Amino acid sequence: MSDAPGRPMKYPYTISAKIAQFPMKYYIQNQWIWRYWMIGIAVSVPVFYKIHKMANSPGNVSKWAEIRRKEAAEHH
């Protein structure tokens, strides 16, 4: 595999050249949105996991199955 070219294009006109020369590290280090995005994910994942566990508990599943059975009986 060859190394990156020693002299990058003055104006990257292809999509791959634009992606290769995009200063992503600079944006991640200097923009607030990336930091708060990571904090938001770290805070919301445990909350959504807890909601998921409560909604899919055996008691809740059987309760909703009974509700759906009653609704189906009313329509027939």
TrEMBL record:
Going by the UniProt record, its keywords in alphabetical order are: Membrane, Transmembrane, Transmembrane helix
Q: Is Transmembrane one of the keywords UniProt gives this record?
A: yes
Q: Give TM regions.
A: 32-49
Official protein name in the record: Uncharacterized protein
Organism expressing this protein natively: Loxostege sticticalis
